[in-house]
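Bit of a strange request maybe. I'm writing a small parser for structure token strings and I need a real example to test against, not something I typed by hand. Could someone generate the tokens for this chain?
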Amino acid sequence: MSSTLPVDNPSAARDAASEFREVHAAVHREVARMMVGQESVIDGVLAALFAGGHVLLEGVPGLGKTLLVSSLSKAVDLNFSRIQFTPDMMPADIRGTNVLTDNEAGGTKLEFQPGPLVAILLLADEINRATPRTQSALLESMQEKQISVGNRTIILEEPFCVMATQNPVEQEGTYPLPEAQLDRFLFKLVVGYPAEDDYRTIIRRTTSSEEVELNSVTDAETVVRLRQVVRSVPLPEHVESEAIRIVIATQPGSKYAPEIVNEVVSLGASPRGVQGLILAGKVRALLNGRFAVAGEDLRAVAMEVLRHRVLVNFQGMSDGVSPDDVIAEVLANLPSVEA
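Reply from user aminoacidic:
Good idea to test on real output. This should exercise your parser:
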């Protein structure tokens, strides 16, 4: 199977898109066997994995954020690592460090011992409990897909992906992520409470003697190949223009910004927001059986891609305006760009 979407060959394009949907559906089904009642969140983490982006999962404790990521690692057979961040954690604790070890000649030598950051799928649990210094070590890996220890540079194995969690309520002993690091996440997904019926399923699965064993339904090599399929989905010029306008509309003082943006937004989305809209839109187009991105794809993913890139000022926070409110207003006021 080709690693690109050959749009000039309809039959081959259908086969590539069909494989993408089949693999996506298989992984979703397997993860959903463990993760109950969070269908949209599962779709979000899968979209990020196949688009080559990172995810910030926000929700109160006990909603299964950690379980979701560990289940994904089993379903895709990825080298999985978890870091439970604490305020006393140092960069070397996650990157690894050079240590003195004995050699065969009876002397000693410096040997690098990799930390938990050297993985393919990394769960950064309670990321906002890490100090800025440790957060910066994670930032390098997210942006450059490598880590530096002394004179040594380690290239992280593809499809490297960071899925971080944070508690939106607990503030004591936390260090809010700076805008520069938030911008590195493709999605910010809000994990909500399960529905009433989902509680019954959760109880039956977790309080009985029956254990759910997840199976690997794909592998890292397939994910890397399908990432190329995603990137080769065509982007019509009018859809590209719409993505640009959506992002510009979140920036105060721009010609597309609605009144709410000029009043309550202090910082709008950056060019990474455009990149995120387009990559996430390509995933959605493939899942819906289309070989090109449409404006509806951009608008469907805009909330997850942009909510962490829009900073509401003090007036907006006092009035109870959230970034989601701002993005909803932007989408409602910005007309679609015609082909």
